[in-house]
Fold G-protein coupled receptors family 1 profile domain-containing protein.
Amino acid sequence: MEYVLSPRFSMMSAIEKQNQTYITELILLGFGDLPDGQVLLFLLFLVIYVVTMMRNILILVLVGANQHLHTPMYFFLSNLSCLEMCYSSTILPKLLASFLTEVFPTAAA
C-alpha cells in the first residue's frame, strides 16, 4: 500500500519547519495599571512569603525534633512543607522584584 501526501500537507509541514520562533518570557499586565498600589502589593506578598516560610520551617523543625511525629503521615507532611518552600522560593521573589521594577516578566516554559 502506497501513501500519497496531498500538496496541502506538504506545504503546511514546510511552513512549520520555517517557523522557529521561541518565546522565553511573558509579560503580565494585570498589576501594571495600579502604580500607587505597587508598594502595598509588595508588602502584602512579602508578608505572605515570610509567613509561608516560617510556617514550613516550623513544621520541619517540629517533625524532626519530636520522636512521636516520626510516622508516615508526618513524613509526608514534611515533604509537602519542603516542596512548598521550594515553590515559594522560586515564584515569590521574582514577583516581589517585579513589583519594585514595575515590569512583570514571567518565564514561558
User: Anything to note?
Assistant: The CA atoms of residues 76 and 90 lie 21 Å apart. The chain has three helices and two strands. The first strand starts at residue 25 and ends at 27. Helices lie at 7-18, 38-65, 72-101.
